[in-house]
Design goal:
It contains 5 helices and 7 strands. It is of the alpha/beta class and about 150 residues long. The protein has a single domain, classed as 3-Layer(aba) Sandwich (Oxidized Rhodanese, domain 1), CATH 3.40.250. The strands form 2 sheets. A 5-stranded parallel beta sheet has the order 1-6-5-2-4. α5 links the parallel β5 and β6. The N terminus is likely disordered.
Length: about 150
Amino acid sequence: MICVSSLAGMLLRVPAVSADATSGDLENRAKGSVHFSPGKVGWIDSSVLAKMLEDRDRQNISFYLVDLRLEADYQKGHISGAVNIPSQKLRFVAEKIFGKTDPVVFYGYARNSEDMNAVIRMMNKGYVRLSVLTGGIESWQGVLEPGAE
């Protein structure tokens, strides 16, 4: 389990998106930083996520990293430590996996409104610390791990 309890030095403030946002609003807010704010979805860029992953063991940082793509694409390559929950299944399993205040970073396909809608649905169900990797998996500049995690 990759579980962000303390990101003090890595939090960058960006305009957050309200619960009535559309997937287009989310795309327009992609500014390349991370922001966990109650009732709003934040954005994280590839370099910040890489730093969080690098520092997580050293600084006891914890967060969930969720790959929203189809299982076949996850198997071809995913960010190390990510769990695969396709966006179509997220609403059915979220309550079994995440607490409402757990920090969760999502990534999917670069411009997939279904991925964004899945995150918005979670926010509307009361999940309060959600962020999305700007540009999805295509923006990731690190190594991709093949196969199941």
